Amino acid sequence: MTVRRGFGEPSGGRSDLVIGREESFAAAREQLSRGGSVLLHGPAGIGKSTVLRTLAGEYARTARTVLRCSATESESHLPFLALADLLGLVLDEVSGALPDAQRTALESALTGRGESTLQRDGLALRLAVLSALRALAAAGPVLVVADDLQWLDPASAELLGFAARRLGDTPVRMLCAVRTEGPETEGSEYGRHLRAAPPDTRAVRLGPLTRVQVSALLDHRGYTGLPRSTVREIHRTSGGNPLFALELGRALAESPTPPRPGEPLPVPTSLRALVLSRLEMLSEEARRTLLVASAGARPTPALLHAAGRENAEAETARAAELGLLAPDPEGPAVRFAHPLISAALYAEAPAAERRAAHAALSRAASDPIERARHLALATTGTDPEVAARLAEAAALARDRGAPSVAASLGLLAARHTPAGSEPGPGEHRLQAAEDAITAGEVDLARDIAREVLARATAPGERVRAWMVVIEAAGQAIGEVDAVFPQALADAGDDPRLLALVHYQLAWRGLVVQGDFAQGREEAAHAAGLAARAGDRRTELLALAFQAQAETLMGHPDAPATIQRALKEPQDPRVACHHNGAGSARFRWLVMSDRLAEARTTVTALLREVRRRGMAESEVHYLRFLAETELHSGHCGRALDLARQSLTLARDAGIGEGAGAMQAALAEAAGGDVERALDLAREAVRRAEEDGDAVYLSRALAALGHAHLVAGDWREAVRALRRVRELEAGAGITDPARGRWQGDLAEALVRIGEPAEAQDVIDTTRAHALRLGRESVLAVLDRAEARVRAARGEHRAAVARLTSVRDRLAGLGYGLEEARAAFALAELRAGRPGPASYDDAARLFRRCRALPWLRQVDAAVAARAAGPAPERAGTPDGLAGLASMERQVAALVMEGATNREIAARLFVSVKTVEATLTRVYRKLGIRSRVDIVRLAAGRAP
Fold first, then answer.
1. Contacts (Cβ under 8 Å, ≥6 apart) of 443
2. Angle 249-402-234 (CA atoms, 0-180°, nearest 5)?
3. How much is the pLDDT for 390?
4. Which of 35, 350, 812, 915 has the lowest tally of Cβ within 10 angstroms?
5. CA angle centred on 69, ends 189 and 26, rounded to 5°
6. Which of the two residues, 916 and 293, has the higher pLDDT score?
7. Could you give the angle at the alpha carbon of 917 between the alpha carbons of 915 and 923, nearest 5°?
8. Domain HTH luxR-type spans what residues (predicted)?
9. What span, in angstroms and rounded, lies between the C-alpha atoms of 836 and 406?
């Protein structure tokens, strides 16, 4: 129990279990900050106590008195114990404020002197607790912190609930946590505890963590280096429960050897005891039935019968009564109440019983993949027949679009393949590694490849393994530079193997050195070697690479190379691959302003890679589709797609920098500008860390664009000048690649550099004219109109913008059309002629371009306010702020709260807070009051 007075106690730091609780914290903080109470609830181990402690540490500073109690199950039978924890140390302070009968009853309950009971002294005790809290609150705010309400002794719970319901406007806040299972209904435990809380209490449920959050939690605790497939299994087994996930991570860290594919995670004794205590109430036969169910992928009563469990219905019904099983909303499957129950039950069983369960399922299962998997897990040692069945099952899984399953089956096949067989264990492992790459499980693929390299002597196996290591590096290909000489040495003079290595050398030249010409030459060489060797798959990949490089370079051979890459015969694995000819054609279509064809192409590719389970390609095609929708002015759709792509990229650990880059562009167009800036900075950081020269320029272009939308012209120019230097050094001449040139020219005009802006426009226009990039030419004309306006050529600027808007509309670039209308409105403001801010707003609204709509609103408000009054010798104190910063500062001057500002500007409260922080820093002030003083021309 803690009692604290005053305001100087520091709050504790955040625990790692707070990861993934941002929304819960926001809801609780909002409630507490306005004087309300909070009830945290959720299942055991979900992190309630950690969130409770963190919030209590934060809000203890605003309370004069903090009362705490934390009940335990073993003490829940002791009457008034929780009440003694809460009020024991303040009894002397409050007793003088209580009537005699109340004081006597309370002292008797808290000290144990006398025999106070609820039955005898019920009313006096109830009123005494209420009076004590009011007396404490009379001296200053009170915070009551109560953890594990479910273990409160009934007497304390009754008294606390009575007082809570009658506190009214008394400055007493309650911050409580309770374990709840099952539905949130009035008749449940949740409902009972909520009724015992103050009427204004906000219930905040803590749910399971996502897979990405579990990964972050494990990393934060120090369980790093786990393969993503293992992290996924931890997430599945723990059900997203942070305590369970950490315990599983700890067990893995302490295990001398990691589990092999098909083997269960090591479940620590602590968790086994937690979830298996109810098993003792089952018969031995019922436990064996549940073991068979835990070994199956999706067990049903029919499957259990076929596996020899004759009384499956009655035994599973009894398990459901004990809470071990739960109804399956999707059908008749036997579903465990929590995945950990199944894992613990399987881990607890002796190895012989587990093999017997798998043997029974290998005969009972109807699916050939499941039969093969169970047969493997029931078999010890090598067995060529079992290995052959596993290889067939892996091929079937591959055809079904389940490469992750194919990889695990391939590893099982390698384990059961005798040495000297054909194909041998190494071939099965390599195929498993390549399946893992397809599934996006790059950590697993890398580990398998290293295992092959440690054993293999055949050049073909070694080179294929090196290729997996390079593929697994992704954009960080520079980190595996030492691999290339070894791969070339193993390849010897075999053109098939050399083609594989030179294809990867093409990527190295592009990504590491940013040299498109070198990458193109290596790809052409690889295509020639592959054609000599009859390796059509590698030839197609190399041709597709060559086509993409030529497209970005503005090389005249690009269309012909694309056609060569699209010629038959095609390899279906390459045809839909994100580095294949389909992707090259999509890029060419987008850059050629054929947006409708580009959308059709990438939609078909996305459908196919999803069917095949190609995780990395799905990440890229979602990003490509988001790019197409953004060009078309469908900002809401683009934002959804970009967020999907980034979520998948983070989950698989592939393409995160590219995903952050595209998400930044989408957020800047249709979401939150602060979020766009954060994502763009992340993309730049990742590209720099990976040594990725290709995506560094694109990430910087996204950062410059986000600064432009935020109204920070100088930062936009700084980022985009770097892009210009990088692309010139890389030999990229096609301006449709990144489409940043118009942004740079516009930002240069804004900061008073029209001459440099014109140079950017002239240089870019020459390339755009040569390549026929109509949309780029229109955007350049829009930027040039701003240059002309800056030079006083107002009529020519208006005429140019009017033409530009029509051209962009005809090409289908909705957002760029709206930006042209906005520029036109800015030039016409205050001059004769039709006002067109409404027109710009209509177009931005059609695009769902919320950040641009906010710019229009700010421009309209500024025009309505008219010129600022002259202040002799006093500069405008807010003139140095960016557009978003000025809007927030203006609303502060109106007296709006952060939440009201967020609602009016369509941003989050967090964005408002971050913007105000920047305003304070730029202006050298510390408070909202200082903003008003500055704007009024007074010193803060």
1. 226, 227, 228, 229, 472, 653
2. 10
3. 96
4. 350
5. 70
6. 293
7. 100
8. 874-939
9. 59
**Contact (CB, 8 A) for 715 and 680:** no
**d(C-alpha 215, C-alpha 246), whole Å:** 10
- Residues near 272 by beta carbon (within 8 Å), at least 6 away in sequence: 344, 347, 348
- How far is the C-alpha of 436 from the C-alpha of 567, rounded, in Å? 29
Strand order across the beta sheet in which 172-179 lies: 65-70, 142-147, 172-179, 38-42, 202-205
Compute the distance between CA of residue 54 and CA of residue 771 in angstroms, rounded to an integer: 59
694: pLDDT confidence band, cut at 50, 70 and 90?
confident
What number is the average pLDDT over the span 408-433?
94
In the predicted structure, residue 160 carries a pLDDT above the cut 50: yes
Helix (H) or strand (E) holding 175: strand 172-179
Structure tokens at 470: 């390079």
Return the amino acid letter for 302. A
Q: What is the pLDDT of residues 317-356, one digit of tens each?
A: 999 998 889 887 767 789 998 888 888 899 889 999 999 9
Strand partners, 202: 38
The larger pLDDT score, comparing residue 863 to residue 792, is at 792
What are the CA-CA distances from residue 471 to residues 406, 442, 474 (Å)?
A: 18, 8, 6
Peptide bond between residue 569 and the one before it cis (omega within 30 degrees of 0)? yes
Cα separation, 319 vs 309, in Å, equals 14
Mean pLDDT throughout 626-649? 96
Signed CA dihedral, 181, 183, 189, 194: sign only: positive
> Across the strands, what pairs with 174?
144
Nearest to 626 by CA among 607, 612, 641: 641
Rounded to an integer, the average pLDDT of 271-291 is 86
| Single-letter residue type at 641 | L
> What is the structure's pLDDT at 402?
93
- Rounded distance between C-alpha atoms, residue 252 and residue 265, angstroms: 7
Query: Packing angle between helix 228-238 and helix 442-455, nearest 10 degrees?
Result: 130
Please determine, for residue 27, whether its predicted confidence score (pLDDT) is greater than 50: yes
DSSP state of 499: H
In which residue are the tokens 């039935």 written?
289
Joined tokens for residue 434: 């390549």
Distances (CA, A) of 398 to 406, 432, 434, 464, 832: 6, 10, 11, 19, 68
Element (H or E) spanning 444, and its range?
A: helix 442-455
The letter for the amino acid at 415 is: R
d(CA 778, CA 767): 13
Model pLDDT for residues 781-794, shown as the tens digit of each residue = 999 999 999 888 98
Measure the CA–CA gap between 155 and 728, rounded to whole angstroms.
77
Answer with the residue of higher pLDDT: 684 or 44: 684
What confidence tens digit (pLDDT) does each residue in 231-279 have?
Answer: 888 998 899 999 889 989 988 888 877 777 657 788 888 788 777 777 8
- 289, 292, 355, 673 from 346: Cα distances, Å: 11, 9, 11, 49
Q: Write the CA distances from 788 to 334, 432, 781, 808, integer angstroms.
A: 73, 62, 10, 20
Q: What is the largest CA-CA distance in the chain?
A: 103
Q: Could you give the angle at the alpha carbon of 160 between the alpha carbons of 157 and 165, nearest 5°?
A: 120
Query: DSSP for 206-271?
Result: --PPPHHHHHHHHHHHT--S--HHHHHHHHHHHTT-HHHHHHHHHHHHH-SSPPPTTSPP---HHH
CA distance 167 to 35: 12
On whether the CB atoms of residues 2 and 66 are closer than 8 A, the answer is yes
> 147 φ, ψ to 5°?
-105, 155
In angstroms, the first-to-last Cα distance of the chain is 44
Structure tokens at 488: 């070339």
The residue ranges of DSSP E strands in 718-874, in sequence order, are none
d(CA 798, CA 789): 8
Helical axes 774-790 vs 814-828, angle rounded to 10°: 10
CB of 150 within 8 A of CB of 189?
Answer: yes
* C-alpha to C-alpha distance for 49 and 179, rounded to whole angstroms: 10
